Amino acid sequence: MLRDAMEAQFVEESDGLTFWLARPQDYDEVMAISQDIYQGNDYLPHRYHTWMTECERVVIIGRRNGRLVALDSALLVDGGQTVVLEGLRVCPSERGRGVAGVIQRVTDCYIKQVYPSVTTKRLTRRDNPGPEKLSKFIFLACRAILSLFGEAERFKGFVSGLKTKLESTEKSDGPSSNNNQKLFVLKDIHQLKAILLDPDLSLRLQLPGGAIIQDWQPLKPMESNLEILERRNLTWMVDCFDDKPMFMSFHTPPYPVPFNGGSLRFNIDMFGTDVFIAKKALIAHLEQVIEEIHGSVVVHVYMPQTFWEAMRQFCEGDEGVKQYMDYWEQLFLEKEIA
Ligand SMILES: CC(C)(COP(=O)(O)OP(=O)(O)OC[C@H]1O[C@@H](n2cnc3c(N)ncnc32)[C@H](O)[C@@H]1OP(=O)(O)O)[C@@H](O)C(=O)NCCC(=O)NCCS
Asked: What InterPro entries does this protein map onto (predicted)?
């Protein structure tokens, strides 16, 4: 039987709210509580229906007197040991009263029932809640984000400007010290697997908290997560030195978000220690999508904090594609599930 046609599955009643598994037909109500979330960069309008059928994902909604007021979601990862929490939201009129805490406890409890092997929950968030709230978590890492915005047709000029800048730094630095290095698009799934499962990867690329963070979703580089990464249809770039990856990045296919009346959101996640390669990778990722983007485009580049200022300077000065948010961060946190 189609889930659509199914009765809503009741989860629990708590604090005057009833909790249910979300269904495809709850979409409009979920969107109604999602106005202006992440300043228009919300991924949920685009991902909701995929979430409904994604295996080992739980999506829970909370209702007060029948009205949908909150949503939380968890994806089972890391071979069943961890859940990644995503999508948390509470309708504006219910905020500041602890509803987010209630739905998170309900989600934890449900997860424990369905997946007893889970010991840990992980989440990424943009706002720093301060030391008191943060002390409830294990702090794993912090990444910097550079955000750009422009009309699709202005990206060709932007990229050619970046190339000119890169060439001039190459010249002024003399013959490149990176002769053995070459950034390439990694398409071979076996090669990708070998790279991701290499036990030295985390140290060499300084992976945040030992994880790959894909568009806010942290995953340990382990075999059982490869299938999840494959589902995301990513474009991978790697730069190797003596066959060892020294830099890795990927982009998620651009997807629509509400920003500025409707835009494409383009996320690039970067891992490594060499900002020069990061600049090359930025150009390469943009070139990969330049023919397919249209309308307004928001680009978010997630990177080690040490890259940020150099990347900002690298991107400044274009008339069409501009930085549109100041420095901001992605916090990566963990907590035991009781
Ligand atoms: C962030 C948001 C969900 C908070 O909802 P709320 O019900 O007003 O939350 P409260 O301030 O009453 O806090 C209740 C609990 O949720 C926790 N919480 C608040 N924001 C959180 C967040 N972003 N991630 C995880 N937990 C959060 C609080 O620490 C508190 O925990 P406690 O009960 O263990 O003390 C709500 O403001 C919202 O929907 N904002 C827009 C969407 C958004 O930014 N979501 C965050 C995704 S990272």
From this structure: Acyl_CoA_acyltransferase (IPR016181), GNAT_dom (IPR000182), Hisat_C (IPR056483)
Q: Please tell me the number of Cα atoms within 13 Å of 12 on its side-chain side.
A: 14
Cα separation, 62 vs 211, in Å, equals 31
Fold: same for 3-118 and 142-336: yes
Q: What is the pLDDT of residues 102-124, one digit of tens each?
A: 999 999 999 999 999 999 999 99
* pLDDT at 1 (0 to 100): 45
Q: Which residue from 36, 43, 47, 88 has its CB within 8 A of the most atoms of ligand 1, so it is best to mutate? A: 88
Measured from the CB, is residue 95 less than 6 Å from ligand 1? yes
Contact by Cβ (8 Å): 129, 315: no
Superfamily of domain 3-118: Gcn5-related N-acetyltransferase (GNAT) (3.40.630.30)
Residue nearest to atom 46 of ligand 1 (CA): 88
Helix (H) or strand (E) holding 167: helix 155-172
Distance from the alpha carbon of residue 101 to the mean position of ligand 1, in angstroms: 7
d(CA 105, CA 81): 18
Nearest-CA residue for ligand 1 atom 14 is 98
192-207 per-residue burial string, b: 16 or more CB within 10 A, e: under 16: beebbeeeebbebbeb
Domain ranges of the chain: 3-118, 142-336
Stretch 199-225: mean pLDDT, rounded? Answer: 96
Q: Is 37 in the pocket of ligand 1 (CB under 6 A)?
A: yes
Q: Is 17 in the pocket of ligand 1 (CB under 6 A)?
A: no
> Can you list the positions of beta strands (E) in the chain?
10-14, 17-21, 57-64, 67-77, 82-90, 120-125, 138-151, 182-186, 212-214, 217-219, 235-241, 244-257, 263-272, 296-303, 322-323, 328-336
Look at residue 170 in the predicted model and tell me its pLDDT: 78
Is the CB–ligand 1 distance for residue 97 below 6 Å? Answer: yes
Confidence of residue 176 (pLDDT cuts 50, 70, 90): low
| CA pair distance 251, 232, nearest whole angstrom | 10
- CATH 3.40.630.30 is the classification of domain 142-336: yes
Cα 160 versus chain centre, distance = 27
